[in-house]
Specification:
By secondary structure, the chain is mostly beta strands. It has one helix and four strands, in the order ββββα. The chain has a four-stranded antiparallel β-sheet, with no helix packed on it. The chain is elongated, with a radius of gyration of 13 Å. The relative contact order is 0.24.
Length: 78
């Protein structure tokens, strides 16, 4: 995956987010500081290749939050 950088505290997950039969990349991350306040993001990278030869698009934020992100119902979101 070229140039994927979501910052500190990243949490990657592989999941077919858009139900197209190809595994996409979901990465949670946190930015900010204790004094300025933390912000969390969930980034979606669509797999436009195949599962055996994936190619991931630019990211799009699918959730943002402060302090902590609530659980995402992945089955309902696809």
């Amino acid at each position: 995956i070229p140039n994927v950088d979501v910052g500190d505290y990243s949490t990657p997950m592989v999941y077919d987010w858009n139900s197209d039969g190809k595994k996409d990349l979901i990465i949670g991350s946190r930015t900010g500081s204790a004094t300025a306040g933390f912000h969390g993001y969930v980034n979606f990278y669509e797999n436009t290749g195949t599962d055996s030869s994936p190619y991931f698009s630019s990211s799009s934020k699918i959730q943002s939050c402060t302090l902590s992100c609530s659980a995402i119902d992945a089955a309902a979101a696809g």
